[in-house]
Amino acid sequence: MSCNRFLFILNSMRFDDRTTRNYRRSEDKLTAVRSMLDQFVYNCKTSYCLSEYLTIDEMLVPFRGRCSFIQYIPSKPAKYGLKIFALVDAKSFYTGNLEIYCGTQPDGPYNMSSKPFDIVMRLLDNVTGSNRNLTCDNWYTSYPLATELLKKQTTIVGTLRKNKKEIPVDFQPHKNKAVNSSFFGFQKEIMITSYTPKKIKL
Question: Where is the PiggyBac transposable element-derived protein domain (predicted)?
């Protein structure tokens, strides 16, 4: 295929009815690709059995075109792009579920909470109750999330931000704690660990 032919097809490609797009955009920022995206996510959910070890994190797909919800994340290699929350199998790296972050959606069926707790519960919706384990970073991990997942027969391992109000005072960073020391706390089904690493001097 020639370059000109490829560019023509790319420019002409559509995944929805343009005549009704403006009306549908009033309740969904992803209206131009919604039907294709929903089918893709459905296939991800139903075409593969995830292992017992799962992860949730965000990824940034590089993009600088016309889009109202492009994100800037300086810690990512691309820095600008579309942010996607994804549930991934930690063994096979298969994506089992995903959501594209659109900021605040207009009022309607796609206006959903962007709080970490709610994102995790939506992504795990079709695998809870199956005794799987989730690993995630400190943006998602919280005590309320851990207790709620336990009710759904799902465990979680993750780091906690030190400003979380549910962390006991004894587990907070302190200058008198010995380097490489660990401190453990237990409940019936939940454990918390505080580790003091060696400070990196620059």
Answer: 1-199
Contact 86, 58 (CB under 8 A): yes
Lookup: tokens for 49: 């059995």
User: CA-to-CA distance for 76 and 145, rounded, in angstroms?
Assistant: 26
Q: Are strands 182-186 and 155-158 parallel, antiparallel or unpaired?
A: unpaired
CA pair distance 127, 49, nearest whole angstrom:
10
Give me the tens of pLDDT residue by residue for the chain, a chain 202 residues long: 899 999 999 888 877 777 777 777 788 888 888 889 999 999 999 999 999 999 999 999 999 888 889 999 998 888 999 999 999 999 999 999 999 999 888 888 888 999 999 999 999 999 999 999 999 999 999 999 999 999 999 999 999 988 888 888 888 877 788 888 888 999 989 999 988 888 765 5
> What global pTM score does this model have?
0.85
CB neighbours (10 Å) of residue 32?
16
Q: Which helix (H) or strand (E) holds 6?
A: helix 3-12
Task: Find tokens 């706390």 and name the residue.
Answer: 185
